[in-house]
Amino acid sequence: MPAKDIYHDTVKNALIKDGWTITNDPLSLKIGNKDIFIDIAADKLLVADKKGQKIAVEVKSFVGTSEVEDLKNALGQYILYEKILKRQFSERILYLAIRSAIFRRLFSQEIGQILLEDNTLKLIIFDPEQEMITQWIN
């Protein structure tokens, strides 16, 4: 089992505060003879339309020496996990969870904008000090 990201529990707590029920920590997938672990799986019952939402969340800290290198690695992992998740748990939507400071630094610039303009990835932006989700990007 892989080590937890340094913001794993922060994101988990933020999801709980946002009304999500944590169902898997981590969500274990098997593809062939390889094991894959997505950090968190959560469900939320929407009372208004009586339809539940199911998500999987991969948490990334972006604490390496290069934010661009961290972004490339996170994006590659996200794409791989999303494809495997669609095969095994098609009802779950994958999100990448990143700190609000990283979102401001990377996604306000062209490098991040190109990933947002064609919906390449879904993001959960969180404030680590308040353990709170500040934005969902679908």
Q: Can you describe what's shown?
A:
The chain contains 4 helices and 8 strands; from the N terminus they run αβββββαβααββ. The radius of gyration is 15 Å and the shape is globular. Helices cover about 35% and strands about 35% of the residues. By secondary structure, the protein is of the alpha/beta class. The mean pLDDT is about 90. The longest helix is centred in the middle third of the chain and has 22 residues, at about 65-90. The strands form 2 sheets. Strands 1-4-5-6-7-8 form a 6-stranded mixed beta sheet, with helices on both faces. A two-stranded antiparallel ribbon has the order 2-3. A hairpin with a 4-residue loop joins strand 7 and strand 8 (about 130-135).
- Our estimate of the beta-strand percent is 35-45%
Fraction of residues in H or I helices = 25-40%
Which ranges are low-confidence, i.e. pLDDT below 50, for 5 or more consecutive residues?
Answer: none
- Strand order, main sheet: write it out: 1-4-5-6-7-8
Q: What Rg is obtained from the alpha carbons, in whole angstroms?
A: 15 Å
Largest sheet properties? 6 strands, mixed
